[in-house]
Amino acid sequence: MRASTIFALASGRGRAGIAVVRISGPDARTATAELTDRVLPVRRAVRVDLRDPADQELLDQGLAIFFPGPASFTGEDVVELHVHGGIAVVDGVLRALSGREGLRLADPGEFTRRGFENGKLDLTAAEGVADLVAAETEAQRRQALGQMGGALAAFCDAGRDKLVETLAYWEAAIDFSEEELPPDLEQRVVTAVSELSAAIGAQLSDGYRGERLRQGIEAAIVGIPNAGKSSLLNRLARRDAAIVSETAGTTRDIIEVHLELGGYPVILADTAGLRDPGDAIEEEGVRRAIERAERADMRIVVMDGEAWPVVAAETRAWITADNLLVLNKTDSLQSTAPDELDGHEIIGISAKTGAGIDTLLVKLEQRVAGIFAGKAAPIVTRARHREALEETQVALARFLDASDRLERPELSAEDLRMAARALGRITGSVDVEDLLDVIFADFCIGK
Ligand SMILES: Nc1nc2c(ncn2[C@@H]2O[C@H](COP(=O)(O)OP(=O)(O)OP(=O)(O)O)[C@@H](O)[C@H]2O)c(=O)[nH]1
Ligand SMILES: [Mg+2]
Fold first, then answer.
1. Quick one: which of 319, 385, 419, 436 could link to 395 by a disulfide (CB 3.0–4.6 Å)?
2. Is residue 225 domain-shared with residue 197, that is, in the same domain?
3. Pocket of ligand 1 (CB under 6 A)
4. Could you tell me which residues come within 8 angstroms of residue 171 by beta carbon, excluding any fewer than 6 positions away?
């Protein structure tokens, strides 16, 4: 069946200097010819008048570039139209294209998916493209580029090659009688499998840094009502994201803002004040607050300076070396500002005046950087990778744990085969059809 030709706006929607419309498929060049009245040269930008083929109305003057397949992003013939980035211009061009026979609007991620299906990039690189487009901070960009560049794929491919080679040795044990076998065959295979298992184990024990970086590090603000948690969130976010009021128990839901701290993405959550709830809604708010604080990577415990030196029992439970202790409302403190509590440092701030916020930011940045600093860049960036590596580990362990493996070499060979398949699924080199819809649905249209 002849593949359909797809098109979409590849740049962001809205008003901009330039917008890029991408067309991919067998009719890309001819469809463009109908709009521009010229056959595009190969891989050279040319100035074109774009006209609606229906009535020859001028839509825009722009640039067109033709990338013949297979040396293109999708592996198919691709045309890029660079037009003025106005909503009416883009709509006009898309409408003119949609009127062409054999052309249709692309699904989310369809360009990259075609690239994958045509062998232009493996699954991990495709995910890297999506992550790069979504990257909001330097560290995320670096990680996405690493994955696009094949950091994870290289690890999986090397592991898989090693397994295939080992499997060939092992299958010799099936085909030959015990006397004919080299005496160290079993040992060699066991050593190779152990080494691979150790290498995967090292990647899995990465503290989930890759996933945390991709999604953002979670930080939660906790404390009793009226301590000034929402005021602090607004201060750090530099906008009025949460409602602040003198009524204790104002915040009920979790309110999230995205921050960049020292190049790392942080999702900061404001939570309901901890106390004996007055009603069912507050009860649910407190439950959510505790749940979020427990699962967060970092916690900022806010104490009320107006109550100092009294620290509420609800707050006491969170005073640990792991958490950042903040005393708010230092502007209305009755006594001198304390610098520690139970041996833990206290950072004095005023969410109202902004005093101490810079110090708090430095401490936060140190903590965030501490999660990543000095460690090799993680290559596992999604739950999908982790699950497949864990599955590989389980199969390898089954092989290593079977002391009777030489008596039943076929079963043990199957363990190695399963491990190789699980590794292969990460890059998409084996049976992934069922995964593709899920992975590419993550993309935006035009990618
Ligand atoms: N003087 C002073 N007042 C503050 C400061 N920070 C917050 N407040 C006031 O304290 C009150 C409570 O502030 P919120 O930020 O709503 O407190 P909260 O911890 O979010 O309270 P709940 O949502 O009820 O848990 C408001 O009246 C704020 O204006 C501060 O640094 N100094
Ligand atoms: Mg609040």
1. 419
2. no
3. 223, 225-231, 244-246, 248-251, 272-273, 328-329, 331-332, 350-352
4. 409, 413
